Amino acid sequence: MLKQVVRLLMAALVVSIPYAAAAAERVVDPVKSWDNHLKTWAVVGTVVYLTVTIPLIYFVFKYRRKHKDEDGAYIEGNTGLEILWTIIPMIIIIMLGVQSWAVFNDLREVPKDHIEVKVVAFMYGFEMYTPEGIKTLNELRVPVGNVKVNLTSKDVIHNFALPAFRTREDMVAGENTYLWFYAKEPGEYPVYCAEFCGSGHSSMLAKVIVMKKEDYEAWVKSKQSEAATATLTPEAKGKNLVESLACLGCHGIAGETKAGPALNGLFGKTEELEDGTKVVVDDAFIKEKIADPKAKPIKGFGHIMPPNMLTNEEYEAIAAYLKTIK
Ligand code: CUA
Fold first, then answer.
1. Shortest CA distance to 266 belongs to which of 220, 322, 306, 310?
2. pLDDT digits (tens, 9 = 90+) for 237-294
3. Is the shortest distance between the CB of 197 and ligand 1 below 6 Å?
4. Is 44 a member of any domain?
5. 287, 190: one domain
6. 160 with 246, same domain?
7. pLDDT computed for residue 49 by the predictor
8. What's 307's domain CATH number?
9. CA 229 to CA 224: how far, in whole Å?
10. Which of 28, 91, 161, 266 sits CB 3.0–4.6 Å from 12 for a disulfide?
11. Which pLDDT belongs to residue 14?
């Protein structure tokens, strides 16, 4: 009997070792290991379910009471059976445990050759920074390869979720968390905020754009030269400000209402304030609204806009930009 137990345990370990070995070698694609893991659980779960349910239904009918005063047989137990149905689940659980541990390691141990980017969440959007320091909004461009993403938040808890890469991680103000993913193929992959963070939670959508190495390098160069030759018109400056101050997390520019009103067509419009007074959206109102958003809240929206102290030239640039989007 003891020999049999030892043999079964050895068998369990032999099946589990490849998973542990894969983790040790670090040739890792978490998407694959997750999917295999899910399949294993689905198969094991189905087999266990059927093994229990089919005999259960069969016995319910076979041993049902057939006469009113019939007594069931008194069964003491069966040592062999009890040992068997203790050992088998134990082996299954050890295997699943080892596999889970290996998958967890895949997700937490960043392979040595990786690039490091940074993502900062705010209500409501993601600021992304490439290793070269290029800042983008709700759009993370990376070359093919392993990417470590350092995460933090400016305000409440958000969660950086990458379903295509089978990973996600909380983003907490004052703390640095991380995740990594293997950007295998060029393409666009969705990013979601997976932690309910306020009224704009559902608009916290972004994307990871995986590019071929040479395309990525060309993009970095073009961004860097763009920044170097920045003699911009007020309109273009205003556009940059609206994008870099992350206004677009809460304001649409295609007529859509998010946490705040859409910015296109806003200039020159008459808006009703919470106290019922009507105001025309002009240069002065825009300046006041950006500097002290709570002073004149527009009816129908919350009070979540943060104040931004800018220079007069910057307020004017934003107003100039708003005039151009109808
Ligand atoms: Cu940020 Cu939900």
1. 322
2. 888 888 877 788 888 888 888 888 888 888 888 888 888 888 888 888 888 888 888 8
3. yes
4. yes
5. no
6. no
7. 95
8. 1.10.760.10
9. 9
10. 91
11. 55
**Same domain? 99 vs 20:** yes
Which stretches in the chain have pLDDT values below 50?
A: 23, 25-26
What pLDDT is attached to residue 171?
95
Q: Is the CB of 168 under 6 A from ligand 1?
A: no
Q: How far is the CA of 159 from the centre of ligand 1 (A)?
A: 6
Q: Are residues 296 and 218 in the same domain?
A: no
Query: Does residue 206 line the site of ligand 1, with CB under 6 A?
Result: no
Which of 166, 195, 228 represents a domain boundary (last residue)?
Answer: 228
Strand 205-211 and strand 139-143: pairing?
A: parallel
Does residue 71 lie in a domain region? no
Going by alpha carbons, the residue nearest to atom 1 of ligand 1 is 158
> Which spans in 267-311 are helix H?
283-291
Task: Please give the distance, rounded to the nearest whole angstrom, from the Cα atom of residue 276 to the centre of ligand 1.
Answer: 32
pLDDT for residue 21: 55
Task: Compute the distance from residue 205 Cα to the ligand 1 centre, in Å.
Answer: 9
CB of 193 within 6 A of ligand 1: the answer is yes
pLDDT of residue 291: 81
Shortest-distance atom of ligand 1 to CA 124: 1
Number of domains in the chain: 3
Residue 157 is predicted with a pLDDT of 95
CB 107 within 8 A of CB 30: yes
* Rounded Cα–Cα distance for residues 13 and 141 (Å): 42
What CA–CA distance (Å, rounded) separates 80 from 86? 10
Q: 93 and 6 in one domain? A: yes
- 70 falls within a domain: no
